[in-house]
Amino acid sequence: MLIEVPSWLRRDPDTDVDHDYLTEEQIDVLPDGVFYKRKATLTRQRFVKATIRVDGFPIVVEMVDNRGSWQFSAAAFSKLRGRLPAEVAGVDAEGLLALLGLADTVRPEGVPLPPSRVRHPQTYDDVVGLYRDYSDMEKQGHFTDDSPDIDRLRAVIAATPAGSRVVDLGCNSGAFGARLIEENGCVVAGVDLAHRLLIEARRKGVQAVRAFAERTPFRSGAFDVVLCCELLEHVLEPDLLLEEARRLVRPGGLLVITVPHAAGEWGEHDVPYHAEHLRAYRKDDLNALVHAHGFQVTQMLAHHYGHTVPQELVMSAARYR
Do residues 49 and 30 touch, judged by C-beta distance below 8 A? Predict the structure, then answer.
């Protein structure tokens, strides 16, 4: 029996390679080795198609990149085992991986992840290196009407009063700002560290500048609304970020925050495996943090995105001092 597997399965997944959120129709025509996530489901795991040949017969299976480790799903195991000759068709998942020569790099579904090799940023120079060429979240497939986390964008738009002066801290390519300009008639500024994303944000009408979110060039009290969307879990010093948000927003103005929920896919258990995420939050954590910096929570929403546990917190808070 001759078994051929893609050579890239003998190495750990390349976490520097980007992925897109795709529909099932797009996935059907995707070639081997291209990372993707499904538009229908918000998940931390990425997927890739791999063609394994048994005596020349091609068998396409879906492999899982589970936080930087290849995982062999139960569905992939069942599909592949069903094509094996009778003398080896009864092997278990670990035996099949050994037969494929993948026991060193691929784990069966349910086997614990290995210790994390992720290094979190320790200095602001580390932060610059990590984010200077960051992913364009909108181009990945976020924030379209069929994206799995569109409710996050809709909640931010709903929380932002029409005609507001807004600053988007960590504006990425300007997806939120563009929608606020179009739908709410807002004037939007933004900051980010990636030159490429700043150029795209400016193209969409966002007055975007390169700066740390904790140290922006804008004058005090210049804004009615400060957005911190998917940012608080990334920064080295959350207290400095909240102090800057308080400085930027006028008295009585709003701070709008979105963060992954500590119980979700990007929560507490994920932080050790995620180079960009330094912490996770629950409602009480977020409430206490913003209150300590002069904000009073006016709304706190938990989004589940089809999961049984909450995946996201969306909070609005008014500056009271």
Answer: yes
169: tokens are 């801290």
Give the total residue count for the chain.
Answer: 321
Host H or E run for residue 154: helix 150-159
Strand 295-303 relative to strand 312-319: parallel, antiparallel, unpaired? Answer: antiparallel
Q: What angle do CA 9, 13, 18 make, to 5 degrees?
A: 130
From residue 218, alpha-carbon distances to 38, 247, 253 in Å are 39, 9, 16
d(CA 61, CA 315): 40
Residue 63 phi, psi (nearest 5)? -100, 155
Phi and psi at 284, nearest 5°, equal -65, -35
Strand partners, 59: 52
| pLDDT by 10s per residue, the chain, length 321 | 788 999 999 999 998 899 999 999 999 999 999 999 999 888 999 999 999 998 899 999 999 999 999 999 889 988 888 888 777 778 888 998 998 999 999 999 989 999 999 999 999 999 999 999 999 999 999 988 888 889 999 999 999 999 999 999 999 999 999 999 999 999 999 999 999 999 999 999 999 999 999 999 999 999 999 999 999 999 999 999 999 999 999 999 999 999 999 999 999 999 999 999 999 999 999 999 999 999 999 999 999 998 999 999 999 999 999
- CA-closest candidate to residue 251, choices 161, 298, 164, 319: 319
* Residue found under tokens 């009407």: 145
C-beta separation of 173 from 201 below 8 A: yes
d(CA 94, CA 114): 16
Identity at 279, one-letter amino acid code: R
Rounded-to-integer distance, Cα 204 and Cα 186, Å: 13
What are the distances in angstroms from CA 98 to CA 10, 103, 213? Answer: 12, 5, 48
Torsion angles phi and psi, residue 273, rounded to 5 = -105, 5
